[in-house]
Amino acid sequence: MFVLVNLKTYPCDPVAVADAVRDVDESTDARLAVAPQAADLARVAETGVETWAQHVDPIEHGSNTGHTLAESVADAGAVGTLINHSERRLKLADIDGSVRAAERAGLETVVCANNPEQIGAAAALGPDAVAVEPPELIGTGTPVSQADPDIVEDAVEAADNVDSEVSVLCGAGISTGDDVVAAGDLGAEGVLLASGVAKADDPQAALEDLVDPL
Ligand code: G3P
């Protein structure tokens, strides 16, 4: 299972969480990675943890102000990027452009979507993976695998119908090892989570619990 920890703009110490993710990654068969804010990418990557961006823009080098360039993200040490997170929604053409920009920079891509219909559309753009996250469950602590298991199974089917090479992650409310196992049982190849680790008093203990049953 792939466990991608999105730090959003939570007031955690990104390097401390990155150290914890790296240490737990070394003790499990699961693949762990962390997605800090763009400004923190370089110092997080320096810890040796697998580092992801939260977003890249559909742009190239040039006259763009206030944007995130995929090449800069890669230069900072990121190996992948989220695209179209529900807190950073893009128009369809811009999702496509961001996937192309990420590919150009050699970044792995996970395109997020709200529901199975959007997952099918996202998979058609050829990312490495898609992630289904019902926005109403984000940050609630109620796992999507429990509150709405059908949405995960339907997302897996929708992606598979479009492109069987595109793997499916799920997210929203995931905070325990049981939640991760349940996601895997529904066909997801990984999970996207944030508050369960970024807001935990002890992020390392939260991560250890997450991967314990894997
Ligand atoms: O990107 C992960 C996310 O949106 C889920 O957040 O806090 O419910 O794990 P959370």
Q: Describe it for me?
A:
The protein is of the alpha/beta class and 214 residues long. It has one domain: TIM Barrel (Alpha-Beta Barrel), CATH 3.20.20.70. 39% of the residues lie in helices and 16% in strands. It is built from ten helices and eight strands. It has helices spanning 14-25, 41-45, 70-75, 92-104, 116-123, 144-147, 149-162, 177-185, 195-198, 203-211; strands spanning 2-6, 31-35, 52-53, 80-83, 108-113, 129-132, 167-171, 190-193. It has an eight-stranded parallel sheet with strand order 2-1-8-7-6-5-4-3. Helix 8 (177-185) links the parallel strand 7 and strand 8. The longest helix has 14 residues, at 149-162. The N and C termini lie close together (8 Å). SN-glycerol-3-phosphate is lined by residues 6, 85, 133, 138-139, 171-174, 192-196.
